[in-house]
Amino acid sequence: MTIFLSFAGHRDPVADDTNEEGSIVTLCRWLPEHGYRIDQVWLLSTNSAGQKYAQNTRHWLMTEGLFTAEQILLFHREADPVDYEGVTQWTFDLVQKHLPAGHCKNEMVHFNAASGTPPMKVSGFLLSVAGLLKGGKIWTVRNPQHVTEHHKRVSVQDVRFIGEYLLRERLAEAVAGNQFQTAIALAQEWGRITIHDAVRRTNTALRGVLQAYRAWDLTDFAAARRYLTQVERMDSLPWTLEGRNAFDRQRRWLNNTALESAEENPLNLVELYYSIERYFEQERYADALARSRRLIEGLLYYCYHVKYQVNVRRMAKSWISQLPQTMAQRFRNDAERYVPLLLLVQALTEESSDMSVRELGSDIDTFKELMDVRNQSLAAHGMQPVTREDIARVRPILRKWVRTLVPETRDYLKHYPLTPAMRHRVLQDLGLPPRRE
């Protein structure tokens, strides 16, 4: 259904000074003649004079056989006709009440911006910026005395670029904050309201990449691969060399089956580390702390397995005998239990012949404090919050421990393809604004 919406003004239905039909009647004739169907006419008024104009216009449209009585709806609310906020708010409320978002997918609203007071005319432009015109357009009608070869009687005014700009900025903010689900919704809305053919051509790819990043963030690597493969198969995307290289690096990373291994390895440990960085940026501090503890645990499991070929997940008595004697002595009293991480850390750092590993012992006190915070917080056994400062303290320790305990991770850390900069190289080619430093 297509709706024509207009405030009624003093030149409706006919202007006294020119004896010409006003903008409402003019558009009600012109639009159908030029392929724009109108199913309903909504006439709005805010005082007794405007109400009279609306009633007279309704009668004129019916008398001229343009619309039936059932097709013309009158909406009146007493308000100051020059109050921008009051008029605009009522117009917003009216459209949202009768055309609620998500329930009227086939509606189209055309707005007449040539009738009524300045605030009434402006309300249509604001409706368009807010995306509430449902695919319709804003129309203006020139006084017939000023119509020339170059200035037509009827013209369309497209101001969606304002809303599109604001939406694009919000999308960039969502991506920068790793809010991928929000970014997907914003990208979808951008594709719906855009006036640019280039955006329409790349919008499906943009949403596909964002869906891949969301799946990646959720460690659903198979889904992330699938989304990026779909984008790879799309034709004529406007890749730059930098954007394409970043995209290809992301695909190669996801194609590595080590990411989905049930056992710790250099690749999935780096992935775990960077997920903590994203949680920090998302302000999910309890989740970041829980994963920090899991990363330390994973590093220890991996190191003991590689260095001593033991599985310290099991009770100590099953693997103590496989350790060098000096290290085994440390766990004799723990044979009948699962060894706490703190003891594993102390043994590994103090018994190592590698000075860089031994130096990690200086971080143990900070690690202990953070584990105390974890145990008292929602991340583990308590009800206390985890703060930004808590995670800020542990972040530099984590990167150092990953690099030192598993040297094979250094190249992965350096070239990790889902950093904010790498994401932006890809998404900028698909329409995101340039990154602000």
Characterise the protein shown here.
The chain has helices spanning 23-33, 48-63, 84-98, 118-129, 160-176, 180-193, 197-217, 221-232, 241-254, 266-281, 285-308, 325-328, 341-351, 355-358, 364-375, 388-405, 409-414, 420-429; strands at residues 2-7, 40-45, 72-76, 108-112, 138-141, 154-157. The protein has 437 residues and is an alpha/beta fold. The chain has 3 domains: 2-158, Hypothetical protein VC1899 like domain (Restriction endonuclease-like) (Rossmann fold); 163-258 and 422-429; 283-406, no CATH class. It has a 6-stranded mixed β-sheet, with helices on both faces. Pfam families: Cas_Cas02710 (PF09670).
Our Rg estimate from Cα atoms comes to 32 Å
Order of strands across the biggest sheet?
Answer: 3-2-1-4-5-6
Task: Tell me which CATH architecture of the largest domain applies here.
Answer: 3-Layer(aba) Sandwich
Largest sheet: 6 strands, mixed
**Distance from first to last alpha carbon:** 46 Å
What is the CATH C-level name of the largest domain?
Answer: Alpha Beta
H and E string = EHEHEHEHEEHHHHHHHHHHHHHH
Average pLDDT, to the nearest integer?
Answer: 90
Helix content range: 40-55%
| Tally of separate helices | 18
Structural class, please?
A: alpha/beta
Number of strands: 6
Q: Could you state the oligomeric state of the chains shown?
A: single chain
| Overall structural domain count | 3
Shape summary: elongated
Pfam families: Cas_Cas02710
